[in-house]
Specification:
Helices cover 31% and strands 16% of the residues. The protein is α/β, with parallel strands linked by helices. Helix 1 crosses helix 2. The longest helix is centred in the first third of the chain and has 19 residues.
C-alpha cells in the first residue's frame, strides 16, 4: 500500500502519508497573499515555528538537537521500522508546506542522503520548501516573467532530480496554535497554474493541502481564538475547480480527506468534484484523536470513535475506489529529540480492514503506484 511521507524540517522528522503495503492488503504559511481575506501574521516569539523543535515557543533549536543529516537518517530508520510493523512496502517523503523565509527549512540534499540506503522503499517529493514559499510570497497580480521563469527553473530542477511529486503544496493551511502559521492563497494563483503545466510536462502529480470551503465562512469557533487565523476564511473550492480544469493532464492529489477543520469536506461535495474532474485524486487520513480543539467530534471524519467507517463514507469509498489512496500523514522523528506530532498511521491504515480485498488493494497499493510511478 502506498503512503506518502513528509519530512519535517529542522527536526529531521519524516511525516508519512501514503504508502504501499506489501502484498497490497491488510496488516502542512506565513503571511497570506495580499489579495486574500485574512488577518496579517503577528510578529513576536513563536510566530513562525521551526517544525519539530523541542520547544516550539522558542526561536532556536535546543543545543541537544542533533544535526539535520543525523536526525533525518535516524528518522528514516524509524520510519522503515514503522512500515515493517504495518506491512508497508514503500513511502513517499516530503516537506510540509512552508512560507517565505521560514527557519529550519527543507534541505533536499540532506533528504537524498537519508533515504539513499532505502532506495527501493523511500522516495522523495519536493516543492513544499522551495516552490510553495514562492507562491505564498508572490501576490497573484505581481507575477512577473522573471518570477515565473525562476519558479519554472526550480520546478524543472526538482523534476530532473527524480522526485515523485510536487508537494506538499498548500492553498489553505490553518493555524492550530499560536506557534503554528496560517497560510493562504487561491489555488488558481498564476504560479499554481504554471505548476499544473509543469506537472503535466513531467508527469509528476501535485500533492495539495487545502481546507474545503465552498464559500467564505466565519472562522470556526475551535480556531477563531488563534490570532494567526483570519476572522473570515476565504472560499477555496471555486478556485480549486479552476486549477483542476486548467490542465487535465496534471494529476492533483488532495490530501487529508477525513481531517476536516471547517465542516465543508462532505462526501457529497467530494463526490461531485470527482465526477467533474477526472484528474483529481484523494488521500484518506484518520487522525487517532477524534476531537477538534473545542473538544467536539471532528466533522466529516471517516470513522466513529471506535474506528468504524461511517456508512456514507463506506459507500463513497466503494464508488470511487479507483481515485482514492491512504494518506496517513505521520511525522516520524527521534523519540526524546523531536517534538511529538498527532498520530494517524494506525487509524488511517485501519480503513483497509473494513473494505473488500479488491478495494483495499486499490486504495492501499495500486492507485498510489500508478499516480506516483512507484
Amino acid at each position: 500500500m502506498h503512503l506518502d511521507g513528509i519530512i519535517e524540517q529542522g527536526s529531521g522528522q519524516f511525516q508519512g502519508r501514503q504508502q504501499m503495503k506489501k502484498q497490497g492488503l491488510r496488516p502542512r504559511r506565513g503571511p497570506p497573499e495580499k489579495s486574500s481575506q485574512s488577518r496579517p501574521m503577528r510578529k513576536g516569539p513563536g510566530s513562525r515555528m521551526q517544525p519539530g523543535q523541542n520547544n516550539p515557543s522558542k526561536g532556536q533549536p535546543t543545543p541537544q538537537q542533533p544535526s539535520c543529516d543525523k536526525d533525518y537518517s535516524q528518522s528514516a530508520k524509524n520510519l522503515i521500522a514503522l512500515m515493517d510493523q504495518y506491512g508497508v512496502e514503500k513511502s513517499l517523503i516530503m516537506p510540509p508546506p512552508q512560507y517565505p523565509d521560514q527557519k529550519g527549512g527543507y534541505e533536499h540534499t540532506a533528504l537524498l542522503k537519508a533515504v539513499a540506503p532505502f532506495k527501493n522503499r523511500l522516495f522523495l517529493a519536493a516543492g513544499g520548501g522551495t516552490l510553495n514559499p514562492i507562491i505564498i510570497g508572490t501576490d497573484r497580480n505581481e507575477v512577473t516573467l522573471e518570477i515565473a521563469q525562476a519558479f519554472e527553473a526550480k520546478a524543472n530542477a526538482l523534476a530532473d532530480s527524480g522526485i515523485k511529486c510536487f508537494g506538499e503544496m498548500t492553498a489553505m493551511h490553518l493555524s492550530m496554535a499560536e506557534h503554528h502559521p496560517y497560510i493562504s492563497t487561491q489555488p488558481d494563483h498564476p504560479l499554481f497554474l504554471l505548476l499544473a503545466d509543469l506537472s503535466a510536462k513531467h508527469n509528476i502529480p501535485i500533492d495539495l493541502h487545502m481546507e474545503a470551503i465552498p464559500k467564505p465562512i466565519p472562522c470556526p469557533p475551535a480556531l477563531s481564538n488563534i490570532s494567526m487565523n483570519p476572522d473570515v476564511l476565504p472560499a477555496t473550492i471555486p478556485a480549486f475547480e479552476e486549477l483542476l480544469s486548467y490542465n487535465r493532464n496534471a494529476n492533483i492529489v488532495w490530501q487529508h480527506i477525513g481531517w476536516d477543520n471547517t465542516g465543508g469536506m462532505t462526501p457529497t461535495l467530494l463526490d461531485q468534484l470527482l465526477q467533474k474532474h477526472p484528474n483529481l485524486y484523494l488521500a484518506l487520513r484518520v487522525e487517532d484523536k477524534p476531537y477538534d480543539l473545542s473538544g467536539n467530534l471532528m466533522p466529516n471524519r471517516l470513522v466513529d470513535i471506535k474506528g468504524k467507517l461511517y456508512p456514507e463514507w463506506l459507500t463513497f469509498i466503494k464508488k470511487h475506489a479507483d481515485r482514492l489512496m491512504i494518506g496517513s500523514d505521520e511525522f516520524v522523528g527521534v523519540p526524546g529529540k523531536t517534538f511529538q506530532k498527532p498520530k494517524s498511521f494506525k487509524s488511517s491504515w485501519g480503513i483497509l480492514k473494513q473494505v473488500p480485498n479488491s478495494i483495499a488493494e486499490k486504495i492501499g497499493h495500486s492507485n498510489a503506484a500508478k499516480i506516483y510511478h512507484l
